[in-house]
Design a protein that fits this description.
Blueprint lengths: L8 H16 L6 H8 L4 H6 L3 H25 L4 H15 L4 H16 L4 H15 L5 H20 L6 H12 L5
Pfam families: TetR_N (PF00440)
Keywords: DNA-binding, Transcription, Transcription regulation
GO molecular function: DNA binding
């Protein structure tokens, strides 16, 4: 029997892993569930990945890179301080994490990184990219504060039962980014 050539299989497995994590959580994710979601034989899992930790690292690294890429693009497009403030609001309210799936994936990654220090390299790299993007327009301390606001609001968006008021975010960004010229 000839082997089927499937150059996209590894990528499909990684994407399916994120889907399974979003539905089942990290604790409910298994090779069998990911293989089924990716539509690949179970043996493909061990062919492409040494184990579940490697698969989780690959999946969460991809997720973090994708979100950080969107963050960087939005901050790069801001031509001045006022536009950067508006971009920061957009990042916090909708652009960085676009839906409930991404909010859940973020919380799953944070929990995994809190429990297993090896996964902190992913979150640390993500935070460093976020701060670097913010530092295009803000000093390092302000960038760190905005990043913390983004992280905190992400947690609130994921867990709060009340709708979020964009005006509150606008006011928070204004306060954090206030300069002596304002």
């Amino acid at each position: 029997m000839a082997r089927r050539f499937d150059p996209e299989r590894r990528e499909r497995i990684i994407a399916a892993c994120l889907d399974v994590i979003a539905e089942e959580g990290v604790a409910g994710t298994s090779h069998r569930k990911v293989a089924a979601a990716a539509g690949v034989p179970l043996g493909s899992m061990t062919y492409h990945f040494d184990g579940m930790d490697e698969l989780l690292r690959e999946a969460f690294t991809r997720f973090a890179h994708d979100v950080a890429d969107r963050f960087e693009v939005l901050m790069q497009q801001a031509p001045d301080l006022d536009a950067a403030r508006k971009a920061a609001v957009e990042l916090i309210t909708s652009a960085t994490l676009q839906d409930q799936r991404e909010l859940v994936l973020t919380q799953e990654l944070y929990t995994l990184a809190a429990r297993q220090p090896a996964f902190r390299t992913i979150t640390n790299a993500w935070m460093a990219r976020s701060r670097a993007a913010l530092e295009r327009h803000f000093d390092p301390l302000t960038a760190r504060l905005l990043d913390a606001l983004n992280e905190g609001m992400t947690l609130h968006r994921a867990l709060d039962t009340e709708p979020h008021d964009v005006a509150t975010v606008i006011e928070a960004v204004a306060r954090i980014t206030r300069t002596t010229d304002d």
